[in-house]
């Protein structure tokens, strides 16, 4: 197995998904995930995409995100709403609660650590 991994959707079978039951707020968002890396100890990396819609989020894990395209609004419960778009990078830490609203189909690179 090579130790250098390029994150590329070509050749990766995408996983389809949607917000978990009871979390949908509005719209009909559909997720596509290309998980390029799954390492021992709960580390994941790849590309995720969602069509427009809004749902509640709760993070038990740590996640680094880099937005590749689209526009989304991430609102922290009891805090501010942040608009993210292509070129933006951020971390959502364990315990983050709020909502994710996709205004324009959004694609991001992610690294998740459980």
UniProtKB/TrEMBL annotation:
Pfam families reported for this sequence? Cupin_3
Which InterPro entries does its entry note? RmlC-like_jellyroll, RmlC_Cupin_sf, UGlyAH_Cupin_dom
Tell me the ranges covered by the (S)-ureidoglycine aminohydrolase cupin domain, including all copies: 38-110
- Gene3D superfamilies membership: Jelly Rolls
Q: Which PANTHER family does the record match to this protein?
A: (S)-UREIDOGLYCINE AMINOHYDROLASE CUPIN DOMAIN-CONTAINING PROTEIN (PTHR40943:SF2), CYTOPLASMIC PROTEIN-RELATED (PTHR40943)
Tell me the protein's name. Cupin
């Amino acid at each position: 197995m090579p130790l250098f991994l390029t994150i590329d959707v070509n050749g990766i079978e995408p996983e389809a998904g949607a917000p978990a039951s009871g979390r949908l707020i509005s719209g009909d968002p559909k997720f596509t995930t290309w998980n390029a890396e799954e390492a021992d100890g709960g580390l994941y990396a790849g590309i995720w995409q969602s069509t427009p819609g809004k749902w509640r989020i709760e993070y038990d894990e740590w996640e680094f995100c880099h937005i590749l395209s689209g526009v989304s609004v991430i609102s922290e419960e009891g805090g501010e709403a942040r608009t993210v778009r292509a070129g933006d990078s951020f971390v959502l830490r364990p315990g983050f609660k709020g909502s994710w609203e996709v205004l324009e189909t959004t694609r991001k690179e992610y690294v998740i650590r459980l």
